[in-house]
Write a structure and sequence with these properties.
This protein is of the alpha+beta class. The protein contains 2 helices and 9 strands; from the N terminus they run ααβββββββββ.
């Protein structure tokens, strides 16, 4: 019984570490940090057609689409929404922490300038 509890604890602990990971650590081929300080982290995000990142966590963020396209987002619970299409020049703001995985389901490269806000009040997803 103690071995079972130990393995459950290890699985939960490792899962929390994995899903709390920084995007640039778990998917460096997608996320490039351009600037980081106490206030913000600015990243260039590039998804080639069919490419996805690994499950990761963001602070509240603002995203500017340098090149638009169609993405599908899967949340921590494994639920995927419908694909969303963003146009070049579009800006979105997510005012809470999020844990998710993103996949480019379109046929064009998606490029985003993403600014994580470290000092905004952090709600939950």
């Amino acid at each position: 019984m103690n071995k079972v509890l130990f393995f459950i604890f290890v699985a939960i602990f490792n899962g929390n570490l994995l899903f709390g990971q920084l995007p640039e650590k778990v998917s460096p081929e997608v996320y490039k940090v351009l600037l980081e300080n106490d206030d913000v982290k600015v990243m260039e995000v590039t998804f080639k057609p069919g490419q996805s990142d690994k499950m990761h966590k963001h602070n509240p963020f603002t995203a500017y689409f340098l090149e638009g396209g169609t993405n599908k987002v899967t949340n921590l619970n494994g639920n995927s929404g419908k694909p969303t299409t963003h146009k070049e020049g579009e800006v979105i703001h997510i005012p809470r922490e999020v844990t998710h995985q993103v996949k480019n389901v379109g046929d064009t490269t998606v490029r985003i300038l993403l600014v994580e806000h470290k000092k905004l009040k952090k709600g939950k997803n």
